[in-house]
Amino acid sequence: MSMNSYKRDSVVADMSKGKNTSVASIDLSTIPKTNFTYRIIKDPVKSQILFYDKIIRNDFVYEENPAFKWKISEEKKNIGNLRCQAAFLSYAGRQYKAWFTNDIPISDGPYKFYGLPGLIVEIEDSKKQYKFELLSYKNIAEKPLLWISEKRVNGKKVTKQDFYQALKNTQDNFISEIAKSGFTLDSNAEAKVKDKMKRKNNPIELNP
Q1: Domain boundaries, the chain
Q2: pLDDT in tens, 16-29
Q3: What pTM value is reported for the model?
Q4: For 30-60, what is each residue's pLDDT tens digit?
Q5: Which of 14, 3, 15, 37 is nearest to 152 (CA)?
Q6: I need a labelling partner for 200 at 20 to 30 A (CA). Which of 69, 170, 174, 206 fits?
């Protein structure tokens, strides 16, 4: 989860616990924006990932049981004040190099990645198109609450393959899909949407 996603969830979690009972009491402009629409819940014990996302106005959820086959290297370096070690992974059509640290013995990382002896501090694909970096960390007294809307939790359950096929179909026919959802776009908005979709043709998972 990105930092802004976490901050947004924290605001909503506070509301759900009664710290903010009125929407009017919240300055919405101060809530961080994020480009990540998905939510990921991991259960390493079951080797299970639940992936929540939406396509236009439709919410979906799929389950994945990835068998991450990490290859740990003897290569080491310091990242900030953390002693890190390299590991390599092939996943969904990309080759990754990760740096994990035993200084934080948590077997987790960004996106769907987990399964190393320590926290993943940095991970990047071999084409240098996707990179995740740990910006900061701190100890917290209570377990953070990841907020997922009821609508999204109750999203349509599909297979991973069906989700990505629906996503591809929507991207290929975005304007018509928008129209089916009840929206209308003027020519300027339509041109902007087409340009945005062209820039989304490099997904993190090349072979989902």
Answers
A1: 71-133
A2: 455 544 444 445 45
A3: 0.77
A4: 555 667 789 999 998 899 999 999 988 899 9
A5: 37
A6: 69
